């Protein structure tokens, strides 16, 4: 574990991703105190509408006179809450399914993996939009829709790892001394599959943030006046190209955070797999 961590920190690309993610976490935790005008992020002031970037408003103001800089900072918290909630829910659904399907052959394994394949066959955005239309628009709707579309990736990942590990010598030895299958799964197979789950979760954070922003852009995600990056880009469309700052800064926030998670996920994948480390040298 320490060797993998040292490799991660020595990799400049992965270190950059880690720096971006840690900075975003810091901003999300202390957002109400970092935002220069947290009260202006929700209150309209038509007299200040569509002000360009300045010393007073570093990112300018939106069409309701709200400080975009404060809304971008507060939107970081919303983006990370959605990402963490969706990925945790997807793990809680997908990991048990992958373990159950991978440990034993039979009808249960076939049914579970065919259901997983059906979810994987449908484009995630279309499925998320369809689920979002069935529920009331909001962050909760976006989280439920995204969790129900992302769990199959964890199920497939854990299924492959379980199938690989169930034939390992240490598993045969544990079964030979009478260890209960549940004990083998939870205490030995699952920890060995954890690195693959961690990599998938990290990359999934970036994917979730991007998809949640897209749902907000399409009107299925966060509802006004919630500070949301995708919603801000959608509201800015009618003011482009004159009020260029309105969409630019929320869009840059989306790009940077997604990039950070993707870079970190790639670094974790390389650090967790010595074969990939050797191939990069």
TrEMBL record:
One GO cellular component term: plasma membrane
GO biological process: peptide transport; protein transport; transmembrane transport
Keywords tagged on the record: Cell membrane, Membrane, Peptide transport, Protein transport, Transmembrane, Transmembrane helix, Transport
Chief location category: membrane
Transmembrane residue ranges: 12-35, 79-103, 124-148, 197-223, 243-265
Record localization: Cell membrane
Family in the record: Belongs to the binding-protein-dependent transport system permease family.
Protein name: Peptide/nickel transport system permease protein
